[in-house]
Design brief:
Elements (H helix, E strand, L loop, with lengths): L6 E4 L5 E3 H16 L5 H10 L7 H6 L9 H10 L3 H8 L20 H9 L28 H27 L1 H5 L5 H12 L9 H12 L1
Antiparallel strand pairs: 1-2
Helix pairs in contact: 1-2, 1-7, 2-5, 2-7, 4-5, 4-6, 5-7
Length: 221
C-alpha cells in the first residue's frame, strides 16, 4: 500500500497541500455557505468528493508538468452512484460550469453528465481508488423541499454549485497565498505612516477651509 500523500496543490516555492486537507477545508466552507437554505449536508458531500479524482497517479504527474487529466468526473460519479444527482451536477461542473444532463444514450465522449458517468461505468477514468484510504463520504438525504418538482431541483443545484465553487476557490486561495500574506503583515502604526507618506504631496488640500476641516476630521477618525 502506497502511503505517500496525494497532493492537491503545489506553490511556486514548493509548499504542498494534500488532497485530504483540501477536501476537508472545502467541505467545511461549502457546508457553512449552504446552511441558510438547508443544503448543508449536500454541500458537505460535494466538497468532500469534488477533487477525489486528484488521487489518481495521472493527476499527481500533472502537478509536475504532466498532461492534463479529468479529475472532476470521479467525484461526480461517486455522488451519482449514491443517488445524489444534485451533488453530482455540482461536482461535475466545479471547473467548467454546470453540464447538461444529457440522456442514457449519451456515450462517454460527450460532456453531458450522463456521458461523463459512462466514463466511470466503462472504466475509462484514471484509477483513483486511493481516496478510499482517507475519505469517507457521508450518507445524506435529499431535502424534502427539492422533491416537489423540477424547478426546485434546478434551483437547488445552482445554489449547491455556487457554494462548492466558492468554497473550492477560497480554500485554494487561502493555501496558495498563505506565504505572501504572512510576508505582508504590517502594524497599524506602520500602515499609518505609509498613508501619511502617500498623501503628503497633496494633503491637506488648499482652498476652501470647510473642505480642509472635513478632511482633517476624516483622518482623525
Amino acid at each position: 500500500m502506497d502511503h505517500t500523500p496525494c497532493l492537491a496543490h503545489i506553490t511556486d516555492d514548493g509548499r504542498t497541500q494534500t488532497v485530504l486537507t483540501h477536501l476537508l477545508g472545502t467541505a467545511s466552507l461549502a457546508r457553512t455557505f449552504a446552511q441558510p437554505f438547508g443544503g448543508e449536508s449536500q454541500a458537505e458531500l460535494a466538497g468532500l468528493s469534488h477533487d477525489i479524482g486528484k488521487y489518481s497517479a495521472a493527476f499527481q504527474r500533472r502537478l509536475h508538468g504532466g498532461p492534463r487529466t479529468d479529475h472532476a468526473t470521479a467525484g461526480a460519479a461517486e455522488c451519482w452512484q449514491r443517488r445524489q444527482p444534485f451533488a453530482a451536477f455540482a461536482v461535475a461542473g466545479h471547473h467548467g460550469g454546470l453540464p447538461d444532463g444529457g440522456g442514457q444514450g449519451d456515450g462517454p465522449e460527450l460532456a453531458t453528465l450522463c456521458g461523463r458517468i459512462k466514463r466511470k461505468e466503462r472504466n475509462l477514468l484514471e484509477p483513483y481508488d486511493r481516496w478510499q484510504q482517507e475519505v469517507q463520504l457521508p450518507q445524506v438525504d435529499i431535502p424534502s423541499f427539492v422533491q416537489h418538482g423540477m424547478p426546485e431541483g434546478m434551483f437547488f443545484t445552482r445554489m449547491l454549485y455556487s457554494c462548492l465553487v466558492d468554497a473550492d476557490f477560497l480554500d485554494t486561495e487561502t493555501f496558495m497565498e498563505a506565504q505572501s500574506r504572512a510576508q505582508n503583515q504590517f502594524s497599524a502604526e506602520h500602515l499609518w505612516d505609509m498613508l501619511h507618506h502617500y498623501i503628503s504631496g497633496w494633503f491637506p488640500p488648499k482652498g476652501d477651509i470647510k473642505v480642509k476641516r472635513g478632511c482633517d476630521t476624516i483622518l482623525q477618525v
